[in-house]
Write a structure and sequence with these properties.
45% helix; 2 domains; Isopropylmalate Dehydrogenase; alpha/beta; 329 residues; 11-stranded mixed β-sheet
């Protein structure tokens, strides 16, 4: 049975939505959740029926969002440290945390360790695009702010394999984020990375920011500094668009009627497309195991889907496939 370690204390809203997400996940899939955190608080939110369906590891320290990520290695009694150690020790197949993302990435990288041929891990996320049933995988979105060309090359391989194994794409296309599609465009980093990536089977060349959302490629590669800005800017645009729609709908009776008629078929589908809760979390690719990093504001639905993502990742063989591809290069 798949075992998933869950940082029950991470996240902006404490253990309640996390426990609720675990319960919802247990209702749909068979796995063993290992809840790490304050036992008393965990059991206060966990229905009695589920007590024998989970394992609880007691922890009385929580790394707050305001704490430095570098403190994580010293705070061995923290919930995220203990959760990561379960994966390191082979007692869990994956870890899910909505807590301090920097601490989770630091611990996963240094305690679980990197895959043998990976120099730096990458945080990957799914971005909405205009294709009805497709999404674009973007990496890195924050794990490595200062990248080398070799890092970007490895990100491309990891993204390609993830798209094959987890997204079900037979021949995923990969693009390198740049300021123009021409081969000559880009900065010193992307130009050097382009030379390394051009022989990859799925590499389509440089892509622009708009290509993330138009579905022209399946995987977009960039450094973590750029990727994080793209991610945060995209979240801001989506939030602003929805707010503007609400404002203008309220001002017009015909708009209200139209919005009511489109509520289920259009707005519901649109919300599902852009809602982070639908994806659950971002996998940290390149570590010897599975680490899913969820949004700090994750609700029960997001936690449930993050757990499902961890289960799918653990079952997929993606890490073996990444290593196999890298050793052939």
């Amino acid at each position: 049975m798949i075992r998933i370690a869950i940082d029950a204390m991470g996240g902006d809203f404490g253990p309640e939505p996390i426990i609720e997400g675990v319960v919802d996940a247990l209702d749909q899939k068979k796995f063993l959740p290992i809840l790490v955190g304050n036992r008393e608080q965990i059991t206060s939110f966990l229905p009695e029926f589920y007590l024998d369906k989970v394992e609880i590891i007691d922890s009385n320290d929580v790394i707050a969002m305001s704490d430095q990520a570098t403190q994580a290695l010293k705070r061995k009694d923290s919930s995220i440290y203990k959760a990561v150690e379960l994966v390191r020790d082979g007692k869990a197949d994956g870890v899910v945390s909505a807590g301090h993302s920097g601490a989770t990435m630091t611990l996963a990288t240094l305690r679980i360790g990197r895959l043998p041929n990976i120099s730096k891990p990458a945080l990957a996320t799914l971005m909405p695009n205009k294709s009805i049933n497709a999404k674009t995988l973007l990496l890195d979105v924050g794990a490595v702010t200062d990248c080398t060309a070799k890092n970007l090359y490895e990100f491309a391989i990891m993204g390609e394999v993830y798209a094959q194994k987890l997204l079900g794409l037979t021949n995923p296309s990969v693009g390198l984020l740049s300021n123009g599609e021409e081969d000559s465009k880009g900065n010193a980093l992307t130009k050097e990375a382009f030379k390394l990536m051009k022989d990859l089977p799925g590499f389509k060349g440089n892509v622009e920011g708009s290509d993330i959302f138009n579905g022209s490629v399946d995987v977009v590669v960039c450094d973590g500094y750029t990727g994080n800005i793209v991610l945060k800017a995209s979240e801001g645009v989506v939030s602003t668009v929805f707010d503007l729609m609400k404002i203008h709908i309220k001002k017009s009776i015909p708009a209200k009627i139209g919005a009511f008629l489109m509520k289920k078929k259009v707005f519901k589908k649109l919300k599902e497309k852009v809602d982070y809760a639908e994806y659950g979390g971002a996998p940290l690719l390149g570590v010897k195991g599975c680490a899913i990093i969820s949004h700090g504001k994750s609700n029960a639905k997001a936690i449930k889907n993050a757990i499902f993502q961890a289960i799918a990742y653990s079952d997929s063989g993606v890490n073996d496939a990444i290593e196999e591809l890298l050793t052939k290069k």
